[in-house]
Amino acid sequence: MKSLATLAIAAAAFTLAAPVSAQSFAKPEDAIKYRQGAFRVMSAHFGALGAMANNRAPFDPQAAARHGDVIALVSHLPFAGFAAGTDKGENTRAKAEIWTEQPKFRAAAEKMQSEVGKLAAAAKTGNLDNLKAAFGPAAGSCKACHDDFRRD
Ligand code: HEC
What is the pLDDT of residues 9-29, one digit of tens each? Predict the structure, then answer.
């Protein structure tokens, strides 16, 4: 039952999050703003779940389930913004390695998408211990990519 639910969530996320293509951006800055905006939205909902997971906010199972869904959905969006030619500029912290080590960057993105998928499923169980257990690995998948591919 749980794996069915997980599959349904994954399917919903893929269907809804039809990513824009690299060609959708008129200027490199537009792509940079898009990816940063997506990360910021994901981060806001991730922070709200983290506060519950770390006992800094009361556990609200319905809100947790919604945050999980938003995170899982938005986790697919930033990567269209890493189009070719968007590695330069003062307003980006993206490292050049994103474009020279594409398979590694993509693997880090997929790892995060997989972990936040599990987080969304855990949030839906209505059980705080499940949320706590899934939060650490998800946060670790954000940090791993930032360590390798984002400037301080
Ligand atoms: C595959 C790599 C990767 C993963 C995984 C990843 N990030 Fe990022 N993140 C980046 C890069 C690269 C930037 C810098 C983007 C830029 O400045 O153009 C960034 C920027 C950000 C920013 C700053 C956006 C801004 O306003 O400039 C936030 C917040 C953020 N990420 C949150 C998260 C969270 C939360 C997760 C996990 C749920 C996550 N990221 C997972 C690569 C990643």
Answer: 555 555 555 667 767 899 999
